[in-house]
């Protein structure tokens, strides 16, 4: 099965990087966050696993963390938007 992958450097969040892999149909296979609230981010990774990229973006895009203009879920959406446009095995 062909996959797409991204290591996305986050901006404005406690996590520093998000590593995401999806299949050729844009179904998320795995998500790992580096830094941030470990338990919560592991939970997010498990919840989005097996979901279509567009469904995840629709649900969590624009979520804010406190007074910040973004959040780890919002940054995941930025990574997913880029990943969605990548060619398979890019």
Write a structural description.
This protein has helices spanning 38-48, 53-60, 72-85; strands at residues 3-9, 15-23, 28-35. It is of the alpha+beta class. It has a single domain (3-85), classed as Enolase-like, domain 1 (2-Layer Sandwich), CATH 3.30.390. Strands 1-2-3 form a three-stranded antiparallel beta sheet. A hairpin with a 4-residue loop joins β2 and β3 (28-35). The protein is globular, with a radius of gyration of 12 Å.
The number of strands is: 3
Strand content: 25-35%
CATH fold field value: Enolase-like, domain 1
Rg is 12 Å
- The second-level CATH architecture is 2-Layer Sandwich
State the helical fraction.
25-40%
Q: Could you give the order of strands across the largest sheet?
A: 1-2-3
